[in-house]
Amino acid sequence: MDKNYLAMSDQAINEMANLRVGANRMNLARGSAADIAASSAEHGTFAREAVNRNLLMAPALAVATPAYAAAKVMKENSVWAKDFLDYTGLVNADATPPSLAQVFAGYGGIASGVGDRALQAKKSILDFFTPQQPTGQK
After folding, report:
1. How far apart are the C-alpha atoms of 71 and 85, rounded to whole Å?
2. What is the arithmetic mean of pLDDT over 40-56?
3. How big is the chain by its Cα radius of gyration, in Å?
4. Which of 1, 8, 49, 92 is the most exposed, fewest CB within 10 Å of its CB?
């Protein structure tokens, strides 16, 4: 394994994984079965990264995740909603169809991000209470 990879922080490794998911998805034909499957992974990755960066994103994304799926459903079934969402840019014109897999992946990403933050907090607390070794100076 590459030494540089081992020296990277967990956050840097997660960011590389996120970039890889996005880059892999860019190579897929939009709307293909593989693209639709990859979109779920991308939803989960986005949610995890957003919560890792800011814990307050967890409740916001818990509401926004199903709301985004609902907006996609409305866009497919209503001319008014399609016009509004296209005008505002809230749902991309080439967005994949809505699916429960995307919603569940989003919630999984939120849970993963909260778990990552809890582990970071635990490590910080343990580091704080760990006795410091004397440096040998008098």
Report:
1. 8
2. 91
3. 20
4. 1
